[in-house]
Write a structure and sequence with these properties.
The complex is a heterodimer. Helix content of chain A is about 65%, strand content about 0%. Chain A has helices at about 20-25, 35-40, 60-85, 105-130, 130-140, 150-165, 175-190, 195-215, 225-250, 250-280, 290-305, and strands at about 90-95, 95. Chain B contains 23 helices and 2 strands. In chain B, helix 3 (about 45-55) crosses helix 10 and helix 7 runs parallel beside helix 14 (about 300-325). The N and C termini of chain B lie far apart (about 45 Å). Classes of the chains: A mainly alpha, B mainly alpha.
């Protein structure tokens, strides 16, 4: 874990020292010296939307989250206990007569039980501190407008999610990575709506099409027709986005940034793919047209040198 | 083996390691990579060691250990660069360094502060190493007497203590995190009867959850999300002049070095409590015991020295329980344990029999790693400063890609990738609500040990819990676990405080803060 300080805080005086830190621990929070020290090393030091001045989230906000977390953990632990009871307890499994103390259910039952107990303690704390009431009150007042920070959070998670769940298992690793980096770096580094909008739109549309195609029965296996078409669309999408971007940039600084973003998209997979495939002998998650082209080049070079 | 014999075999091992030029190249390279990794905010030693593990799969064990330990030592030290130069710690381990390092840089003493951290980190690592080599054989010998019940309790103790000490909000959030890790570890076929647990019919889950994708997800994804979400823009680091080892200042602060190193080793040896806490505790102790506490925070060299010595000494400390008991002392040590297992080395009390000389080998490698860190720090510091100018919005997406390929590369299993992202997003929300992550990963790695040993102990006693209470070591462990848990319960705290004050009144003493309160609930 590490923490960083957003630009908004400039003065050192706003930077809590470990001692001031523990002095500001609100009541009900564990004010143990060592944990206050640990808290001081937390990632988010800076007062943000929901943060108290000690850098931790506001206690009320935390207790509100605890209410939902407690219910979720209680659910998980109950499910864990329910499934564990179906494991062989005293009957035989694989020809072995079982006894309760060697049953595979023993440990999951203990862990599930302890989790259930702690989630109840958490729930009790959320109820007694008013967090539960806050959480229930907030249901009706959920605003559909997201803060910019939440939009960015959502974007990062969906970008990584689409890359891993939709692109990586279906598209050539080079193309998937290039498109992912293009969309990601343009959105966060170049940071201009007129450039990031088409990049994100194309990236997500591509991911959705891939998933729909899979559901419709297309098979994305090595060198299958569907995968060749998907790879082709991916390459075209990357090139078209790069061209559109260069046509839209108007000043030199923006052009420089956009150029860097496109280079990152090409160079990173160009280094990573051969390093993993040929030096570390790790096959890539999906080897489509570009990786196969790399194979041709590599073996051609080897034959030439031999 | 006698002391002289140990000494000579240590140098033989050292010589053998150095004879292979590939080892030296990899040592220097991974040490530099570690420093850069530590210096880039958002990238931690744990993630560095995890990503590098994927590259060491094909190497022999000693070469793999050289790269991983050099990375670990380098990354813990590297975090001090941005702490000092731009007041943003590269890793949580060097957060305390920023308190006095940055004011020193503002005064134009950035190079001097970096020189101090370089030499202090070097000495810290060496002292940690000395403790490792001195205490590990003793602990391993003692641990040979441990039976299954003790190992179950040790694993359980690791999770309880790690949860207790790393939790920032309510203490049971740390325990919940540990239990969630244990719950994850139960997925897959159980090791005693091979019964598929929670696999839901997916054969890919039969082998269980692998620790590498969990670690990469839990330590990589939340950092990427947080840094990019908050539009963090790093300040431009000032130019630094030539960096010198600052031996004179170090000599003047010898007492700080010794005390901080002891704190570092001690905290490192506690399961799952790592470099970040060592740095802060050591800094706090230096400040509280100083005659001039007001100078701290204004650019006091002793502050920089204290936190940096402690966080590096923590490495040796963290390796003690790792090598002797198979219980990692810090989050990066969790990854080291995973890496050692991949290479067929099973750390634990049997290590001295299974691989005689392994402890000395690790010690020799730790010495080389700290030397490489020191040389890189003195010679290449300016290149590291240049790395800090790369915008986070460019290197973090690249790290996301590395996380993906890194979690795939070890098992070549696409399920690991899906797991990595899911764990990463869950870890982000857990950290948002102040659940510590280290107990979770400790839980994942200690789960099988706890499970197997509990059942084995009960099998031997035919279902009776009596041996848990008749064996002295397990009795002590039970007492410590109970005390740790009780000390967090308000009713117990009130009762104990009442007992203390009545005792004090009776003895006619003035009540002062007890050092014990550091660990169990007093107002710090």
């Amino acid at each position: 874990m590490s923490w960083v300080r957003p630009r908004s805080i400039r003065k050192r005086s706003e930077f809590p020292s470990p001692r001031r830190y523990s002095a500001h621990f609100p009541e009900g929070r564990r004010a143990v010296a060592i944990s206050s020290v640990a808290a001081a090393s937390s990632f988010e030091f800076a007062p943000q939307k929901h943060c108290g001045r000690d850098g931790l989230k506001d206690t009320r906000e935390l207790r509100k989250g605890d209410f939902w977390a407690a219910i979720l953990i209680l659910g998980i632990s109950m499910a864990m206990i329910a499934v564990s009871t179906t494991f062989p307890m005293t009957d035989s499994y694989g020809g072995v007569q079982n006894v309760w103390y060697v049953s595979p259910a023993l440990f999951p039952l203990i862990v599930g039980g302890a989790l259930a107990l702690l989630s109840l303690v958490l729930l009790a704390k959320a109820v007694s501190s008013g967090g539960a009431r806050d959480a229930i009150d907030a249901i009706g007042t959920l605003s559909p407008r997201l803060a910019e920070r939440d939009i960015r959070l959502l974007l990062i998670v969906t970008l990584i999610g689409a890359y891993v769940y939709a692109l990586v298992p279906r598209v050539d690793f080079f193309i998937a990575t290039a498109l992912f980096l293009q969309a990601f770096v343009v959105t966060f580094y170049v940071d201009r709506t007129e450039l990031s909008k088409p990049a994100l739109l194309v990236f997500f549309a591509y991911a959705v099409i891939l998933v729909i195609a899979t559901m419709a029965g297309a098979s994305f296996t090595r060198a299958s027709d569907a995968s060749i078409v998907a790879d082709g669309i991916g390459i075209v999408a990357f090139v078209v986005l790069a061209v559109i971007g260069f046509l839209r940039v108007d000043d030199d600084e923006l052009r420089r940034r956009f150029r860097i973003s496109q280079w990152v998209g090409v160079i990173v997979p160009l280094i990573l793919c051969p390093v993993f495939k040929y030096f570390l002998l790790v096959p890539l998650p999906f080897e489509g047209v570009v990786v196969r082209a790399m194979d041709v080049v590599r073996y051609g070079l080897r034959n030439l040198l031999a | 083996m006698d002391l002289i014999g140990q000494f000579s075999s240590f140098f033989v091992i050292l010589g053998q390691l150095l004879l292979d030029p590939r080892n030296i190249v990899l040592l220097m390279l991974s040490s530099f990579l570690g420093i850069v990794f530590g210096a880039l905010p958002g990238l931690t030693a744990t993630l560095g060691v995890a990503l590098l593990t994927t590259l060491t799969y094909g190497m022999p064990v000693d070469t793999a250990l050289i790269t991983l330990l050099a990375m670990y030592v380098g990354a813990v030290y590297g975090g001090s660069f941005p702490s000092i130069l731009i007041n943003i710690p590269g890793t949580a381990a060097s957060a305390a360094t920023a308190m006095d390092g940055y004011p020193m840089a503002l005064r134009g003493e950035g190079a001097q502060a970096l020189g101090l951290t370089t030499t202090a980190s070097f000495i810290g690592t060496i002292i940690g190493m000395l403790f490792l080599v001195a205490s590990a054989p003793l602990i391993a010998d003692m641990a040979l007497q441990f039976a299954s019940s003790e190992f179950f309790l040790l694993a359980f103790f690791g999770i309880v203590i790690s949860g207790t000490l790393t939790s920032k909000d309510l203490v049971y959030k740390g325990w919940i995190a540990g239990l969630l890790g244990l719950a994850l570890s139960t997925i897959g076929r159980d090791r005693l009867q091979f019964y598929p647990r929670f696999t839901e019919g997916f054969p890919a889950l039969d082998a269980g959850i692998e620790v590498v994708p969990v670690l990469i997800g839990a330590f990589g994804i939340p950092q990427i999300i947080k840094v990019l979400r908050d539009r963090l823009v790093l300040g431009r680091p000032a130019e630094v002049g030539r960096i010198l080892p600052e031996f004179r200042t170090i000599w003047r602060n010898l007492k700080h070095i010794v005390r901080s190193a002891l704190i570092g080793v001690g905290i490192g040896a506690i399961p799952g409590v790592g470099e970040d806490i060592a740095g802060w505790v050591s800094y706090g102790t230096a400040k509280n015991t100083s005659k001039h506490p007001e100078r701290y925070g204004e650019g006091e060299p002793a502050g920089v020295i204290s936190s940096e010595t402690a966080n590096n000494a923590c490495i040796g400390g963290a390796l003690i329980p790792l090598l002797t008991l198979g219980i990692p002392g810090s989050p990066p040590a969790v990854m080291l344990l995973g890496a050692l297992m991949l290479h067929g080395v099973n750390p634990g009390p049997m290590i001295t029999f299974e691989r005689p000389g392994f402890l000395l080998e690790v010690t020799a490698i730790l010495l080389l790693a700290s030397l490489a860190m020191w040389i890189n720090g003195i010679l290449l510091a300016r290149q590291v400063v240049k790395v800090l100018r790369v915008p986070t919005t460019i290197f973090l997406p690249i790290i996301a890609v590395l996380c993906v390929i890194g979690s795939y590369a070890l098992g070549l299993n696409i399920i690991n990738l899906y797991l990595m992202v899911a764990v990463g997003v869950a870890a982000y929300f857990l950290t948002e609500y102040e659940y510590p992550i280290s107990p979770l990963v400790i839980g994942v790695i200690l789960g099988p040990m706890a499970d197997e040993n509990l059942r084995r102990a009960l099998m031997i006693s035919e279902g009776s819990f009596v041996p848990f209470f008749t064996r002295p070591v397990s009795l002590i462990l039970i007492a410590v676990i109970l005390l740790t848990i009780l000390s967090q319960i308000p009713a117990y705290k009130r009762w104990r405080a009442g007992l203390w004050s009545s005792l004090m009144r009776r003895l006619g003493w003035r009540q002062t803060t007890k050092p014990a309160q550091l660990f169990d609930g007093g107002e710090g």
